[in-house]
Design a protein that fits this description.
By secondary structure, the protein is an alpha/beta fold. It has ten helices and 14 strands. It has two domains: 174 residues, Thiolase/Chalcone synthase (Peroxisomal Thiolase, Chain A, domain 1); 150 residues, Thiolase/Chalcone synthase (Peroxisomal Thiolase, Chain A, domain 1, 3-Layer(aba) Sandwich), CATH 3.40.47.10. The chain has a six-stranded mixed beta sheet with strand order 5-4-6-7-1-14, with helices on both faces. Keywords: Acyltransferase, Cytoplasm, Fatty acid biosynthesis, Fatty acid metabolism, Lipid biosynthesis, Lipid metabolism, Multifunctional enzyme, Transferase.
Length: 342
């Protein structure tokens, strides 16, 4: 097959959520908030949280295994993990996931683009397959934000949840259902402080692990404004690049950060509300896992059909953003029973 005729095609999708549910009422017992306050501002009613000792790698391994099962595969040529919450600062978590999946020897690495990580991963996977370097890629988005969010910070504690989802991409021909058509990415490091964990890196190693600097911080109002603008601009650019008119987009899957952001971007794109996929109510903001989790649930709920035009977009720390267009393959999702034990 000539590499000019090669396309990356999604052939499998799987997900994993930890079993423990944290409701808005649960949070209202420890924070100055209420269910109504949280839900009206975010669209979130509950989120999942890992138990002590359960890691991002545990969730990612289960989601990866589920995606391989969905694709009818036992192996792949490359493993990518999009995450903000690796098991350790060093080494990367992806090689450990690969080994646990029986893929020792397969190249594997982490991607760090915060909430845009999955879209960045689609770009990398698509480029690797398109160049002929690999025939199959397992792309995982997995997060355990409960381990980095300050439980006393109402601005972030109510937003984030834990979870993982993964897709398998394989080499295919143009026009094959599941084809990844186009991806565009962007960044602006001048806004790095808007979404950040201040301590622990090489710039501030003196900030002790016991200090508040270890927690994730976000300027919610400024992030809202920039997210709406960047996601709208990026999504519109990708739709134009593949020649899609608004009425031709069957499903818009934005990063699941906040229902207000999703609705605002949908309106700016001229999309009917029923075409905007939102899974925030049940799982909250799962950062790099949010788009594949939303895709998996939409497929499970029969909101996606073979041949549907799917437009994805994300915005996250860095600042980073990106959008992707694909044609849905009709693949059936597999949901793991729970995190894979060590």
């Amino acid at each position: 097959m000539n590499t000019t005729d090669v396309r990356a095609v999604v052939t499998g999708i799987g997900s994993c959520l930890p079993p423990d549910v944290v409701t808005n009422d649960d949070l209202s017992r420890v924070l100055d908030t209420t269910h109504d306050w949280i839900f009206s501002r975010t669209g979130i009613a509950e989120r999942r949280a890992v138990r002590p000792g359960t890691s991002t790698g545990d969730l990612g391994t289960a989601a990866g295994a589920a995606a391989l099962e969905s694709a009818g595969r036992r192996d792949c040529d490359l493993v990518l993990l999009a995450t903000t919450t690796p098991d350790q600062r060093c080494p990367a978590t992806a090689p450990q996931i690969a080994a646990r999946l029986g893929l020792a020897g397969v190249p594997a690495f982490d991607l760090s683009a915060v909430c845009s990580g999955f879209v960045y991963g689609l770009s990398v996977a698509g480029a690797m397959i398109g160049a002929g370097s690999y025939e199959s890629v397992l792309l995982i988005g997995a997060e355990t934000y409960s381990t980095i969010v300050d439980p006393a910070d109402r601005g972030t504690a109510v937003l984030f949840g834990d979870g993982a989802a993964a897709v398998v991409l394989e080499r295919g021909l143009p026009g094959t259902p599941g084809e990844l058509l186009h991806v565009e990415l962007g960044s602006d490091g001048a806004g790095a402080d808007l979404i950040a964990i201040p301590g622990g890196g090489s710039r501030a190693p003196h900030l002790a692990a016991d200090s508040a600097a270890r927690y994730f911080r976000m300027d919610g109002r400024e992030v809202y404004a920039q997210a709406v603008a960047a996601m709208t601009r990026s999504a519109r650019s990708v739709a134009e690049a593949v020649g899609w008119r608004t009425e031709q987009i069957d499903a818009f899957v934005g990063h699941q950060a906040n229902a207000r952001i999703l609705r605002a971007v949908g309106r700016r794109l001229g999309l009917a509300e029923e075409r905007v996929v939102c899974r925030l109510a049940e799982v909250g903001n799962t950062a790099g896992a949010s788009i594949p989790l939303a895709l998996a649930q939409a497929a499970a709920d029969d909101r996606l059909s073979k041949g549907d035009r799917v437009l994805m977009t994300a915005f996250g720390g860095g600042l980073t953003w990106g959008s992707a267009a694909m044609v849905w393959s009709g693949v059936q999702p597999v949901q793991a029973d729970g995190p894979c034990p060590v």
